[in-house]
Specification:
The protein is α/β, with parallel strands linked by helices. Helix content is about 40%, strand content about 15%. It has a 6-stranded parallel β-sheet.
């Protein structure tokens, strides 16, 4: 399996970090400049430590990177966390960074694309942008945890969202128990 993980500048950088830790196979990483400032503030990891979790790392201004081409093959692209500003770019077809170009390629090639959106409340503009992308087949996955698994820690809450992401990629997960499974004793 080959996955692309893009981390934008929304709060919730831990979602992107956790995806890098949990995804099997080859992991390709690109981070926005704002994400690089948020990562150490929110996660306790340095940018260099996060980069070491990936098999390949590209700069967000490198529009010649392989993931900027529709002919480069991968199984799934995650933008986690995904700012609403990024959602707006994607919905309007703006491809001025590697992250936005990679998403445009994923959409045109009909590849699995999952946006872990981290914003609340949402304006009508945000909802319309998300709807436009959803109609194109993009998965809009708000970073909303569930409480039926009875989370005890922030890591449990993040694990639920990442478990749902893994499920979208067709990856078996053990980060939370599914609805209807017996609770732990």
């Amino acid at each position: 399996m080959r996955s692309v993980v893009a981390i934008t500048g929304a709060s919730g950088a831990l979602y992107g970090v956790r995806l890098l830790q949990e995804l099997p196979g080859e992991r390709i990483l690109v981070m926005s400049e704002t994400a690089k400032r948020i990562i150490p503030a929110e996660t306790g990891y340095s940018v260099e430590q996060v980069e070491e979790m990936a098999d390949a790392v590209y700069s967000d201004d490198d529009l010649a990177a392989p993931i900027a081409s529709g002919s480069f093959r991968y199984d799934v692209l995650f933008v986690a966390p995904c700012t609403e500003s990024s959602v707006a770019k994607f919905a309007c077809g703006i491809a001025d960074t590697l992250i936005s170009r990679a998403v445009m390629c994923a959409i045109k090639e009909q590849r699995k694309t999952v946006l872990v959106v981290r914003e609340t409340p949402k304006s009508a503009i945000m909802l319309e942008n998300e709807l436009k992308l959803a109609r194109l087949g993009v998965v809009i996955m708000d970073a909303n945890p569930a409480f039926y698994p009875q989370p005890k820690t922030v890591d449990d809450i993040v694990g639920f969202v990442i478990g749902r992401c893994l499920m979208q990629a067709g990856v078996e997960q053990d980060l939370f128990r599914a609805w209807g499974e017996n609770p732990p004793e």
